[in-house]
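re: that chain from earlier
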Amino acid sequence: MKNTFTLFILTLLISACGSSQYTTKGGRNIDYSTMSTLADALRIQSGVQVMGSAHNTKISIRGVNTSKSSTSETFTASPTGGGPVQRQTKVLDDVEPLFMVDGTIVGNSYNQANRVVNVQDIVSIKVLKSYSETNAFGEQGKNGVIKITTRQGATVQAK
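^ sequence. v structure.
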């Protein structure tokens, strides 16, 4: 009986202290510890659109002020060695959501949030987009809010 109880306690401790963090979303587990960037973690969130890469990453929440985009034309070198090739790119103008990390407002920029968050420490990501959810954040929350909870924030909230 004592060995069974000890095994039970050990199982609880191992599952609570495991290195990977899982969040259940729509019946599936999300393991953020296997992701290399915050953009990867946001790409799998329902309703979040990630455009670009590296320092040019832009985030928008579908259905929230996404009409403020414009199309610009860029020129790139032709792969065949001819003249420049023209292509159109979509630029998001001031449509990034407000990022909050562990209850602290980080700002309306993916780059700001990316500097603050270690993606392997993410416990959960919640996307707020309805007026009733974002109204408390005023003008900053007009494009939606992405609330990120990390291990440190989850520990503080649990106390």
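The first helix runs from residue 2 to 17.
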